[in-house]
Amino acid sequence: MGCESRTGGAGAGCCGVDPYGGAVTIRHGDDGSRGGHRAGVSLGLLPFVAEVTAVDASGEMLRVLGEKVTALEAANLHTLQCDVEEATLPPGRFDQIVSSMVLHHLPDVAMVLKHLRPALRTGGWIALAFLDVEDGTFHADPTGIYHHGFERATGCRWLEEAVFAVSTVREAYRITRPGSDGVMRTCPVFLVTARAG
To answer: What gap in Å lies between CA 183 and CA 116, rounded to an integer?
Structure first.
């Protein structure tokens, strides 16, 4: 699968992404239930960087985000339809990669990180929010869940194997919600930051 770029959530174009960088957010969504959270990550970065490129394999999720971008007149947010499990992003284009609560939806996380590394300039940063290890009851609907969280050491090892130098690992926040049995559960989310070598 190739990658299709769009600028400002509107018309498509081959080179809609500013070649001088900014941040890229890795999203994952196959229905409307997760779209709001993913949009929040992309939109939340806008005041702090020159450009944001939201990447998702789902054209529908990007269409929904594009509508939000148009309504906000956020000309510095672009979308890129790309399956990062199958393809690499444009090389050396980005200064930062940000992903929040996405990786447990992807079967081969180690491979995805190797696909992401070339998109960063040397010295660029990656920030990943991982769900901590849980017993499999955290998600009420397990559809599309490939991992019941991650061991922190495993996430760091995958980053190092993808030629990142891990900088920080810490608990970022906690999520409390009903699990598959209806019982409320709290699960930590940990943040890993690393620099491209």
So the answer is: 37
